[in-house]
Automatic annotation (TrEMBL):
Name of protein: Serine hydrolase
Classification via Pfam families: Beta-lactamase, DUF7586
Keyword rRNA-binding: no
Keywords: Hydrolase
Entry's Gene Ontology molecular function annotations: hydrolase activity
Residue ranges occupied by any DUF7586 domain in the UniProt entry: 343-427
Domain of life of the native organism: Bacteria
Domain named Beta-lactamase-related: residues: 19-315
Organism, as annotated: Winogradskya consettensis
InterPro entries found in the cross-reference section: AmpC-like, Beta-lactam-related, Beta-lactam/transpept-like, DUF7586
Length: 453
């Protein structure tokens, strides 16, 4: 059970939320912070149908829907039903231009148009686009396939159709069975269920409101149809912090645009580097609604903000600022240090200092059975997990991700060096007894001759 936030932290969060609601002239706004899987703070400003909204009040969440769709696609991958490198045409022939892969669609690198042809899909009924041909149009490509990031709502319509095709049922039914019901997200639905907010546009120069139309987007629903609550999205944020699928989603899969180098895109999630942290999640907007979910994996922390306004509130920034308040007021307290309960003698033998050339590293066995190789300069260490061989380990992060650490022994069984993706690590800097690539100068380490250095 996570500890409740301190009063000073709670007041700072409320001040940030209240200020944003006033400055953004937002009819209503509701927010929550999640730490270690629990909602540790929630609050709201404004009213919905005369009442202050709470964690049970539905708002439309727009493109956060895409993150749910991405999870469904990756679950199909994990079940062996598809590969992310598959061309879409392998599963949905004759629908999209040749060469577009499933990964391209997830990462918005397919080169497809941002929107569907015809009237703006978010404010018009989905019946105007009764088939995928109508969603894409006759000329859907805006960039060469795989060349650059270009956000595409029709691309996620294709992914929703892919999920429906491989499950032989509507993608929404698959979503309910595979994600919503297991996570207890009973208030996440394709259409609003009371209590829910009304979507409003606020006049730019006067404090008056205009109701936004509410449409069923049909085949484009995987791009932004869902409604949800802060309570439900807190559960989804916890999933994004803990699920192995979510770890895959956080790997940058498309480049940042030159104007936003701190914001690459993963697989169905936006990524944001802010205050030295990586945030992952998604923003969302539909006429009358704005929404964001951000999680900070390093802090096991998440935040959700939902509002019923079309514009005027930078909801993604606000959500990130709520996280920053918590991390600055209450930095995460590390778990207590404990000795290892067990360690393989062969792994313990590897512990201690190693050198790549003159650069010092330390190898440590970890409680989860992995090992970490960390530079003595304090940079983030590289974690390795064991493979089927007791002498081989696979790197999980950093430069060597996917490469192998191999333990090399002499005929007597003594460890001579470690080989990490062809990088030789030795017990002494440039150990002449080890197979250093290029060899070691036979004169060894030298002092500088007088006047020559």
């Amino acid at each position: 059970m996570s500890l409740e936030l301190l009063p000073g932290t709670r007041r700072a969060l409320l001040h940030k939320l209240a200020t944003a609601q006033v400055q953004g002239r937002t009819p209503s706004i509701v927010a929550a912070v999640i730490r270690d899987g629990d909602v540790v703070w929630s609050d709201a400003r404004g009213t919905v149908n005369g009442d202050v909204p709470d964690g049970n009040t539905q708002y439309r969440i727009g493109s956060i829907t895409k993150t749910f769709v991405a999870v469904l696609v990756l679950r199909l991958r994990d079940a062996g039903r598809l590969s992310l490198t598959d061309p879409l045409s392998l599963h949905l022939p004759g629908v999209a231009p040749d060469g577009i892969t499933i990964r391209d669609l997830l990462a918005h690198t397919a080169g497809l148009s941002s929107e569907s042809p015809g009237p703006w899909w978010e404010r018009t009924p989905g019946t105007l686009r009764p088939d995928l041909g109508g969603v894409l149009g006759d000329d859907p490509l805006r960039h060469p396939v795989g060349r650059r990031f270009h956000y595409s709502n029709p691309g996620y319509a294709l992914l929703g159709a892919l999920v429906a095709k491989l499950h032989d049922e509507p993608w929404g039914a698959v979503l309910r069975r595979e994600i919503l019901e297991p996570l207890g997200m009973t208030r996440t639905t394709p259409h609003p269920v009371a209590p829910h907010a009304t979507g409003w546009a606020v006049h730019p120069w006067a404090d008056v409101l205009l109701p936004e139309p509410l449409q069923d987007t049909g085949l484009l629903s995987p791009a932004g149809q869902l409604w949800s609550t802060t309570t439900d999205l807190a559960r989804f944020a916890s999933f994004l912090l803990t699920s192995p699928v979510a770890q895959d989603m956080r790997i940058p899969s498309s480049p940042s645009e030159p104007t936003s180098l701190d914001s690459p895109y993963g697989l169905g999630v936006q990524l944001l580097h802010r205050d030295g942290r990586l945030l992952a999640g998604h923003t969302g907007s539909m006429p009358g609604f704005l929404a964001t979910v951000w999680v900070s994996p390093d802090d096991n922390l998440g935040a959700v903000v939902l509002a019923n306004t079309t514009a005027g509130l930078t909801v993604g920034t606000l959500t990130a600022e709520l996280l920053q308040i918590v991390t600055s007021h209450e930095p995460r307290i590390p778990a207590p240090w404990r000795p290892l309960e067990s360690v393989d003698p062969g792994v313990l033998e590897l512990a201690g200092p190693w050198y790549w050339g003159p650069q010092g590293y330390a190898l440590r066995p970890l409680a989860d059975g992995f090992v970490e190789l960390a530079s003595l300069t304090g940079k983030t260490g590289i974690r390795f997990r064991p493979t089927a061989s007791t002498e081989t380990w696979e790197a999980l992060n950093g430069y060597f991700t996917g490469e192998h650490l191999r333990v090399i022994r002499d005929p007597a069984g003594t460890v001579t060096h470690l080989d990490v993706g062809s990088f030789v690590f030795t017990r002494q800097p440039y150990d002449p007894a080890s197979p250093i690539p290029g060899g070691v100068d036979p004169t060894g380490w030298q002092t500088a001759p007088t006047g020559l250095y």
